[in-house]
From TrEMBL:
Source organism superkingdom: Eukaryota
Signal peptide: none
Molecular function via GO: isomerase activity
Keywords: Isomerase, NAD
Family designation: Belongs to the NAD(P)-dependent epimerase/dehydratase family.
Database matches in InterPro entries: NAD(P)-bd_dom_sf
Record's protein name: NAD(P)-binding domain-containing protein
Length: 355
């Protein structure tokens, strides 16, 4: 695979992150995975391309999914976005021949799901079967009744296997850059509408016998091969897109938040592999934590970004002084129980490994 270097002025046919008109980066590196990102106004979707023989197998599975038979390893993913699709990919790698269903709010990306071997399903359609494994990873922003949607997902779980809800680490009641783990106190109900919503939804999950995975800040890079018109001819080029808090801060330039606020991170692939590890263990009524155990201040994150040399846009700085501090997460208990370690142990190692 070749290396290419561009400025931030790229063709409009590319799909940049989170509604940006042009990606604030470039410096390309060797590709390890070919990924295309369908255009969308808010959140980009990840479409993983499989070899032809895998695509044929996926097509056969989709075509035979109407049989109504449920396998012991079949999986329902509610909200098959970036994280959900990675979970599906990793689950299928370990459970060849299983059927994976992806439930969505609209039919916008059903064709993409079919190409990945995921059987699309629309929210509101009554399920004809219950699944031994269910993952709910849809965000709360698309629904007026988040706990109700999770309750509906739990009703599609057979009670065998495992039910997992991906939540956020936001409920931990720590705002002084102190230490937190799986068992740390959470924000009392009534203090914050955001944490109230998450905690009330988590309660539905635990009461159903499911499990909660509280995730730190997610990030990832996308690689896409496309055609670019250069000197009267089309040439293949490799584009790399990043998604995460650092991309948002780069785009803003100046951020009215304090630089010493501690943030916690986890790569999307690691979040997916942890979710799969928990599903396999089949626990009941547990709360797990997903993070890389390398908390960083906001300023440290942007210093790493600057040092990496992968981004052409220059970050100006953080200007806040009075906003709350963060927390330092540690998920050693989760790692031991799930038998899991991250592929990307830290944000800095991720940027180094992506060279």
């Amino acid at each position: 695979m070749f290396s290419v270097a561009f400025t931030s002025q790229m063709t409009s046919s590319l799909s940049p992150i989170a509604g940006t008109s042009t990606p604030p980066y470039i410096n390309f590196t060797r590709a390890t995975t070919c990924v295309s990102i369908p255009s969308r106004s808010t959140t980009p979707k990840l479409s993983l391309h499989s070899p032809p023989h895998r695509q044929c197998a996926a097509k056969m599975e989709v075509e035979t999914s109407s049989s109504g038979l449920v396998g012991a390893d079949d999986l329902l993913i509610v909200g098959p976005g970036v994280l959900g699709r990675l979970i599906a990919q990793k689950w299928r790698n370990d459970h060849q021949g299983c059927q994976i269903t992806g439930q969505t709010f609209t039919t916008d990306h059903h064709d993409d799901l079919v190409k990945m071997g995921i059987t699309p399903s629309l929210k509101g359609m009554k399920a004809s079967q219950k699944y031994p494994y269910v993952v709910f990873c849809a965000p709360p922003s698309r629904t007026p009744d988040y706990p109700g949607d999770v309750r509906e997902a739990a009703s599609n779980w057979s009670g065998h296997g495992s039910f997992l809800f991906t939540s956020s680490s936001a409920p931990y009641d720590c705002y002084d850059n102190g230490h937190c783990d799986e068992d740390s106190p959470v924000v009392p109900i009534g203090r914050s509408p955001r944490t109230d919503l998450l905690l009330n939804t988590e309660k539905v999950v635990i009461e159903s016998g499911g499990n909660v995975l509280r995730l730190a800040g997610l990030y990832i890079s996308f690689m896409q091969i496309y055609l670019r018109f250069i000197k009267h001819d089309f040439k293949e080029a490799l584009a790399v897109f990043y998604r995460g808090a650092h991309v948002y801060w780069l785009r803003k330039g100046t951020v009215e938040s304090r630089p010493d606020h501690i943030v916690n991170l986890i790569h999307y692939e690691d979040a997916a592999s942890l979710a799969v590890a928990i599903l396999k263990k089949k626990p009941r009524g547990r709360t797990f934590l997903g993070c890389d155990n390398h908390p960083l201040s906001r300023q440290e994150v942007m210093d790493i970004v600057e040092k990496s040399g992968k981004f052409s846009t220059k970050f100006v700085g953080f200007t806040g002084t009075n906003d709350p501090l963060g927390k330092k997460l540690n998920n050693s208990k989760t790692r031991q129980e799930a038998g899991w370690e991250p592929k990307y142990p830290s944000f800095s190692q991720f940027l180094e490994l992506s060279k």
